[in-house]
Amino acid sequence: MSGSQTVGFDWGYSSIAYNAAAKAGEVEFNLSIYSNQGVRMKPTFRLVRLYENIIDMVLSEFKIQVVSAIKFHRYKSMLCFDLYTSIGDFNLLTTVS
Predict the structure, then answer these.
(1) pLDDT tens per residue across all 97 residues of the chain
(2) Cα 60 from chain centre
(3) In the chain, what are the domain boundaries?
(4) Closest CA to 67 of 22, 1, 2, 9
(5) pTM value > 0.85
């Protein structure tokens, strides 16, 4: 089995000033962790004299991302949490011989 992997992160902070007349104001922190990965596997399934199967699987580089965010609404004194994931550019090629 062989493959490649790249891992990284990105974080941010944003703020809207408190304004009682507009009933607005918030603070937000977010963190994104992402990874680009690719894998190649070549497993062999064998029963002596009965069965042999060689599978070549190539999973080209694809992207995985996990994003978390915390947002505090100052006017309402409300705290919100967000957590979501995404997978993109997923391509699997399988050859059986």
Answers:
(1) 566 678 899 999 999 888 878 778 899 999 999 898 888 888 888 888 788 888 888 888 888 899 999 999 888 889 999 999 988 887 888 888 7
(2) 16
(3) 2-96
(4) 9
(5) no
Question: DSSP assignment of the chain, as one string?
Answer: -EEEEEEEEEEEEEEEEEETTTTEEEEEEEEEEEEEEEEEE--EEEETTTEEEEEEEEEEEEEEEEEEEEEEETTTTEEEEEEEEEEES--EEEEE-
As beta bridge partners, residue 89 has none
What is the distance, to the nearest Å, from the Cα of residue 30 to the centroid of all Cα atoms in its chain? Answer: 14
Q: Are 34 and 67 in contact (CB under 8 A)?
A: no
CB 82 within 8 A of CB 71: yes
Locate 2 and state its tokens.
Answer: 């062989």
Output the six-digit token pair for 88: 């993109």
